[in-house]
Amino acid sequence: MRLFVAILPPPEALAELAVAVGPLRAARPELRWTGEDDWHLTLAFLGEVAETVLPELSIRLERAAARHPGQNLAVAGGGAFPARRKARVLWAGIQSGAGLAPLAASVAAGARRAGAPPPDEDRRYRPHLTLARCRQPADVTELAGALEGFAGTPWTATTILLIRSNLGNRQPRYEYLGTWPLAPARASEL
What is the fold, at CATH topology level, of the domain defined by 2-189? Predict the structure, then answer.
């Protein structure tokens, strides 16, 4: 099964982003736009994982979540991978404190120990929400530029989720396999 670990932004944050993305969709209908219901912040993409790994993976993800406090986040800005002029992915950025990258590293380490090593573990972590994919490399400079000034309302992530991506003919459908709370914020973080 194809798995990833993610944080889901609250509906209010997604609604704000949807308003900003609406005109961009209309301007470039040839792109494969992701639906608002599919927007998520990936902490670790695990790829194909055997079902036998799930019990240990669940234990490891619970431990990883318990070691990290809730994360203060906001959707802000935009860009493209690998570059704006030859993009494969258009994304919205995530503004975060210093705790998000360590959380992502902890999740990846837990997955590795459970027997589900993330195939992209050696890449630098770049938090984002995928908005659109390009069938062929495309110039999305104007779209990414339109998102540069976007700044959504801040919110606090309090859980992580293990999600199964069921690939179909049209778009992936996500199935939530587990959710674990992040640690309560310490007094010094309030």
Answer: Cyclic Phosphodiesterase; Chain: A, (3.90.1140)
